[in-house]
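Think of the structure tokens as a kind of shorthand, similar to the way a musician reads notation: each symbol stands for something richer, in this case the local conformation of the backbone. In the example below we present two proteins back to back. Begin with the first one, reading the sequence and then the tokens, and try to describe in your own words what changes along the chain.
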Amino acid sequence: MVSQMSSNLGDDFCLVCGSPPPLFGERMCEACLRKRIHLAEVPENVPWVRCARCGIVEIQGKWVHLDETDIWDELVQRHLKFHRDAEDVQLAMETRTVSDRHTLIYLQLEGVIEDLLFKEEHTMRARMANGVCLTCTRRAGNYFEATVQLRSSGRKLSEDEYVKLRATLDDVLESLSDDPMFFITSEGQVTGGYDVVLGSKGLARSWGRHLVKEYGGQTVETNSTVGRKDGVDVTRLTMLYRKPGYDLGDVIRWRDNFWRPSTWTKDGAIVERIDRQERTGASWRDLESANVVSRMSEHLVVDLITQDSSVGEFLDPQSWVMASVRLPWDHKGEKRIRLSRIEGEWMALQHLALDENTEEEIV
């Protein structure tokens, strides 16, 4: 009798209600376990902040561009806390807009704890508050860190050149990371050029490198101290970009001969001589004496009517009579050639790789 009683007292049982096995977790039956633990903790209300001026969203202290779907995903990931022992968790979400500021997020959760399948449904209310991001705050205060000055060497930039140079800033902004400090404070034409005031020195330098790569020229940086903050000097950058007075493909007079710049380099340009096969590199200082005699946009591409080994005939578009021109040194019998009017005479130009990517007027 004593032995049987000892055996019954040694059997496992639920510490809460005394039920026999199976037991889970801290020696509880399934019913007691489900009463005491939940698959996830979900707050009833979660706040989030949107800039009232530009619409970007503050996420963990950073202002970023997010669409609504990404906002709800971010809020769920940030505020939803699953049980530490949960496995094979699955989540389904649906939203319903209540007002401009309130959105209900319906959650269906499923997961396994202690080999038991848990299914739960929760509702979370996302409450939007208006704020003002750092970018809009600084824009409103005309904040800036850098000024980029667009100029040209030896001549005034044309309106078309201003448009092309300014458009490259938009390309740079699209290619860079979404930094809230990458904004334009002000811009406009000034005496001798065009100035763009920017909120970031990094943006100014990135744009300067892009301009040099695409259009040649040089940048010169000047830093000025405007104050101190937390023991560190606060400086502003002025970057002067000087575009060469010529473009790739133009005809320039340099060292008493005619050349065509074909490629920009870090320190200057590669130029190719028109009347013979000669290619050389020249620095910006070397090319300061170069003069443009014919722009790429002024060139004509004509069909030859007749040609021999050295001379071709074509219809002169200015006089509408037959004219002759010496064929370029690299001519290989093609019917079409590129012409430039230099000092009242037509001159045939050698072929450059960039000629294939430009709009040509066919006569």
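Once you have a description of the first chain, move to the second and do the same.
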Amino acid sequence: MRVHLCAVGRLRAGPEREMVDDYLARFDKAGRPLGLGPAREHQVEDKRSGGMAAEAGLLTRAVPKGALVAVLDERGKTLSSPQFAARLAEWRDAGRQDVALIIGGADGIAPDLRRRADFSLSLGAMVWPHMLVRVMLAEQLYRAAAILAGSPYHRA
């Protein structure tokens, strides 16, 4: 099952970029034998400052046709790492070819895109900068693959 991180904004060179790249490479390596991956990043920019609606249009176009759409939103479902791993496995086992994890911009995700999503995931009650959310989500993807593989990386 291919995983697509669709995010508003360009993650430039620096520690966040290095961490995302590292965790996605780890996910690809650990996930391959499990039928997970590769992970691909789709970065969109609203150069016309059209707000959440324009960002939603760009994000929607970045999602592969037929993909399950999961938005990252503070109003979404909070999952533990093992629950997130199980959810990915459930989607994979249901025959999903593509899953798109959508990270909005500074103002969040447009309400119409949130309503159309198949799943809404929260990383907790706190609001996080969208660039850090990318790092956190990439790490959780790797952690999910490690959990499903029985690796000691997740020590819960």
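Compare your description with these statements about the second chain. DSSP finds five helices and five strands in the chain.
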